[in-house]
Design brief:
about 400 residues, alpha/beta, Aspartate Aminotransferase, domain 2, Aspartate Aminotransferase, domain 1, 3-stranded antiparallel sheet, 15 helices, about 35% helix, about 15% strand, binds pyridoxal-5'-phosphate
Length: about 400
């Protein structure tokens, strides 16, 4: 039986609250991966990867390169198409090395998914060249790097396609985005979602946000029945992204699932992404990151994986490497510290017999690498409580 831990005392992902909103009137907009690029909003980052692969012509039996250190949502879209993930090694600093990619496959893969973990841009030039030489479609996974830039340019422009995950940077019900420097196929436009579906998304966002307000929690308890009824009344089928024959021909391939399983984001999520994030919010993210990194710098039991924050990095979370996973992970979770880790990798990854030899980091970091929030919505009290618990537990 799994151990159950108390709910975290702070939200791991952004929720709608003061300081954590899409950009307000008068605020300066931070650069992000969607600006100046053609885009298509999808129900999640995972759905955006699936759409990118389908547009790349990936079909059943094809091979797609994907990092062995992954959250399951990176592998699942490959499996949904019926393609075969070819796992490649990442280094202990989560860099992608070209020889690891070349070694991961014995035949020509159709596409490669390339990550920028935790918002830290991974050098991509060599990989991009290798993809060009080999005829492999490069999909830049910017799920963690929505706001990071390299020499002033948002990451995400090196691949044929880029993908983003909106819930990691905005208070949304989910949502993802496929984007490209080149125009996406003309028919690839989200079909308008029904109003009941949009209302459902707003109820979800409101619930996620109210959980963090004292009187809001009471309100949630009091209205549980009414909300369940409302949800049922608003139940609708999935929104479809493809709404034209043109898109269907581009994307339709012989797959176990029809192409229209890829759904559009809610309008709320798309609106947030179009509105953008303020430069103040990015500065707060960076400052929260450094506060947490600084708090653990004197600890014996853990260290930040990336202690320094380059000027152009807008971090998604703080990756913190424990010396040993236990008992520290459990202690922190039991104290309600908001933590994630990739211990529930996709069953495909875990079932790969050579995983440990192929990428020692994957299993190891699945246990030892903690992810702590640094988003702009953390209150001072929450931030200090996180730092205090880390110092006390890991000193
Ligand atoms: C690196 C990376 N890529 C893609 C995704 C998928 O994004 P989403 O959760 O929006 O499906 C995730 C999700 O955690 C991720 O960490």
């Amino acid at each position: 039986m799994g151990v159950s831990f108390p709910s975290p005392f702070a939200p791991v992902l952004p929720v709608l609250r003061s300081r954590c909103t899409p950009r307000l009137p008068g605020q300066r907009r931070a650069k992000d991966v969607l600006q100046g690029r053609d885009r298509c909003f999808t129900s999640s980052g995972s759905a955006a990867i699936e759409l990118a692969l389908r547009l790349a012509g990936v079909s059943s039996g094809d091979e797609v390169l994907v990092p062995a250190f992954n959250c399951r949502t990176m592998v699942e879209p490959i499996l949904r198409i019926g393609a075969r993930p070819a796992l490649y090694r990442v280094s202990p600093t989560l860099e992608v090395e070209i020889d690891a990619i070349a070694r991961a496959t014995s035949r020509t893969p159709r596409a490669l998914v390339f990550p920028h973990y935790f918002g830290f841009p991974n050098p991509i030039r060599d990989v991009s060249k290798w993809c060009d030489d080999e005829g492999v479609v490069l999909v830049e996974d910017c799920a963690h790097a929505f706001l990071s830039t390299v020499q002033g340019v948002p990451v995400g422009g090196s691949g044929e396609f880029g993908v983003a995950s909106l819930r990691k940077f905005y208070p949304t019900d989910g949502g993802g985005c496929l984007f490209s420097e080149k125009p996406l196929p003309a028919g690839l436009r989200p079909k308008q979602a029904s109003w009941s579906s949009e209302a459902r998304a707003l109820v979800t966002v409101a619930e996620q946000s109210l959980r963090w307000v004292r009187s809001g929690r009471r309100l949630i308890e009091l209205t549980a029945g009414a909300r369940a009824g409302l949800r049922q009344a608003l139940q609708i089928s999935d929104r479809t992204v493809m709404d034209s024959a043109a898109a269907r021909t581009t994307v339709a391939v012989s797959t176990p699932t029809p192409p229209n399983v890829v759904s559009a984001s809610s309008r709320w999520a798309a609106w947030c992404a179009l509105r953008g994030i303020s430069t103040t919010a990015v500065e707060r993210r960076r400052s929260n990151y450094l506060t947490i990194a600084d708090a653990v710098s004197g600890c014996a039991r853990a260290r930040p994986l990336f202690p320094a924050l380059g000027n152009e990095v807008a971090p998604y979370m703080v990756p913190l490497l424990l010396d040993v996973a236990e008992p520290y992970f459990s202690r922190l979770k039991s104290a309600g510290v908001p933590i994630w880790r990739w211990d529930r990798l996709s069953s495909y990854t875990l079932a790969t017999p050579a995983l440990t030899g192929l990428c020692p980091v994957t299993r190891d970091y699945g246990e030892r690498l903690l992810q702590l929030p640094c988003h702009e919505g953390l209150s001072e009290t929450e931030l200090h409580r996180i730092c205090d618990m880390l110092k006390r537990t890991l000193r």
